[in-house]
């Protein structure tokens, strides 16, 4: 006799894990909290044991629950991929993608993932700074945008945090303010590195300022000033990295996928998976695992339970 796992119940489990609890999952899925609890009870009936174990106020997965969760993520992702693929329009549909220049190296893999899973899509690319691109996504002018900024709007998905490093000629112990090469406003990275310098009471002056990343890289390469970029900028563009400890390194910058309200849920999941895969070569931390790849979880010593979150 066959026993089948229900995709909607598995989606509930995945959402509980990503949202951090039953109540938040119910809100995301537009379900009542009793309905969410019922989904978990039905999964437990198939599993033959508990999915979650409560220790005080901490919600945890049992070992069996963690194994089920791994399958749930893959089954839900495959379901969404299949739905997006078989329901994709046969005629060519334009799909507009925004991208901040610092992440342009991820573009080939991102486009490859989109076209492979959505064969009826014709992508158009729009390069620009994060804030203007996010505004265009919110207005429905762009479908998605891969941005170096924290998720702020509804529907924006967090992808991880990008490690940063300083590049340029070593300022050493030279007196006077630090000469900086910066992108013009509005620029999230610019504000982030200036906040870091301010927190350490380091004086600075602008030696170069321009709207394009290519001009910024050129200014740094010829020694006009130093700047803070993605930690693999030496590999991407051949820039010289400052020695460790030369300047305080800003905290990693969040990376997010902004999604317009009109984009169907199945297409959102495809774009999310394509973005996750495209960023694997970057110095990114805290990234959500790509479905189908092993997930590392924190295990409490002396127990068979795995901590949620």
TrEMBL record:
Keywords, alphabetical = DNA-binding, Transcription, Transcription regulation
Pfam families (UniProt xref): HTH_1, LysR_substrate
Gene3D superfamilies for the chain: Periplasmic binding protein-like II, Winged helix-like DNA-binding domain superfamily/Winged helix DNA-binding domain
Segments forming domain HTH lysR-type: 5-62
What InterPro entries is this protein classified in? LTTR, LysR_HTH_N, LysR_subst-bd, WH-like_DNA-bd_sf, WH_DNA-bd_sf
Annotated spans, Disordered: 290-309
Has UniProt tagged this entry with the keyword Methyltransferase?
Answer: no
GO MF term (any one): DNA binding
Q: Which domain of life is it from?
A: Bacteria
Which family, according to UniProt?
Belongs to the LysR transcriptional regulatory family.
**PANTHER family per UniProt:** HTH-TYPE TRANSCRIPTIONAL REGULATOR LRHA-RELATED (PTHR30579:SF7), TRANSCRIPTIONAL REGULATOR (PTHR30579)
- Protein name, entry field: LysR family transcription regulator
